[in-house]
Amino acid sequence: MADKRQLFSLIPKVDDILNEKKIIDILKDYDRDFVLKHVRQNIENIRKQIVKLKDNEIETFKIEEDMVISNILKSVDEEKAMNLRRVVNATGVVLHTNLGRALINDNLKNSIWDAVSNYSNLEYDIETGKRGSRYSHVEEVLSQLTGAESAMVVNNNAAAVLLVLSTMAKNKEVIVSRGQLVEIGGAFRVPEVMEQGGALLKEVGTTNKTHVWDYEKAIGEETGLLLKVHTSNYKVLGFTKEVSIEELVEIGDKYKLPVIEDIGSGTLVDFSKYGITKEPTVQESIKKGIDVVTFSGDKLLGGPQAGIIVGKKEYIDLMKKNPLTRAIRIDKLTLAALEGTLRTYLTSKNPDKEIPTLRMLTYTKEEISEKAYKLHDILRNSLVDFNIEKEEGHSQVGGGSMPTEYLKTTLIKVSHKEKNASYIEKKMRENNIPVIGRISEENILLDVRTVKEDEFNIIKTCLLEIEKMAQGGK
Ligand SMILES: *Cc1c(COP(=O)(O)O)cnc(C)c1O
Q1: What pLDDT does residue 127 have?
Q2: CA nearest ligand 1 atom 2, residue
Q3: Residues lining ligand 1, CB < 6 A?
Q4: Which of 117, 206, 250, 464 has the lowest CB atom count within 10 Å?
Q5: How far apart are CA 440 and CA 12, in angstroms?
Q6: What domains, with CATH codes, occur in the chain?
């Protein structure tokens, strides 16, 4: 009869494992210390397993060298794989902040990669052979799209607001309506950003009502600018009065003060033509005379994370010279994705079909229902232990945009004959490509709005594996 001591002596030695062909093979590509760490960890695991064995388990415990090697290869692969990786978003939240907000168009893959895996003219003027500006690649396009004189881009919209304030209102008063002192996404609070930008906040009006005379009363020697913040993520309903952009611009003209707008989502598209809530567009604000508008690249615009600043050239030029700009500058990978997205708006016949965020937000009821049918059929035809049904429901825009908009959608309702929803939901998350859905009343709900058609098979395979696992009694 075997005892634990004998088992310990059967554990393969590090040197023996390093002489195995499969390990020698991977050592051609992988760092030796990295592989060694996994060899040792796997050996240590066997040791721990033996320590935990009960007496009646000792006899049947086997140490198979092939198994040890394949476990090592597996853990090496796992550590090599990217931790930041794709997931299937079946939540129906289009701009899902935790799942990466806006998606970049697949069509841009080659041009983005071309620009970043080679040297580029990032800050080089090809015509003159001299130093160029990294903003030049998007400036002209942004001007054409928004009607603004000038433009620049930074890391995100929070940074854009910070830069505008620090450039135009340092040690000066900035007048904002109390109803617009918002917090967005937890980390962006207008009063705090103002403080960071060195501006002194002067609140006017009340939560629900602000009038022209409130602004006029507050204007004085110390006033640097008037700021309007789009209350992207909430709505005040009922007895309300906001000073309109036109009125604000008039006040600005009268007192010779610049008027700035943080428009948040910054869409270029009038969504009301799709029957959804109209968000203020950037071009309207510029047309109405706002001096500088800032907005996000990865909200409704549907590009990469970026902060876009458009407006009068005299102000944009000052911002480009602000030393803060260097600390919040946009990276070339982002810039390439942003330029591609903006050019799609400029040149495409149907940007709403090409830009993933717009596509997902503007599906017709029929298109969504057709998509749901497909997924429904694929799942029904391959799964045995799951109930698959369709159900009407709602998707959300997300990203703190259009908080009151619920888009009609068709959901796929999934439940397992034996396992409960939280078990299935967990297993779906643990899939090699995690599938993220929602749970409602003991069902998993999958919203096809945010699922690409080529991801239907990922969902199918994922559920098939869960089915097999459940049958195996695990
Ligand atoms: C989202 C938002 C921001 C922050 O933008 P980021 O790009 O996430 O930094 C700032 N202001 C408003 C009004 C917003 O909606």
Answers
A1: 96
A2: 264
A3: 156-158, 184-185, 188, 229-230, 232, 262, 264-265, 296, 307, 400
A4: 117
A5: 49
A6: 4-78 (no CATH), 88-97+360-471 (3.90.1150.180), 107-354 (3.40.640.10)
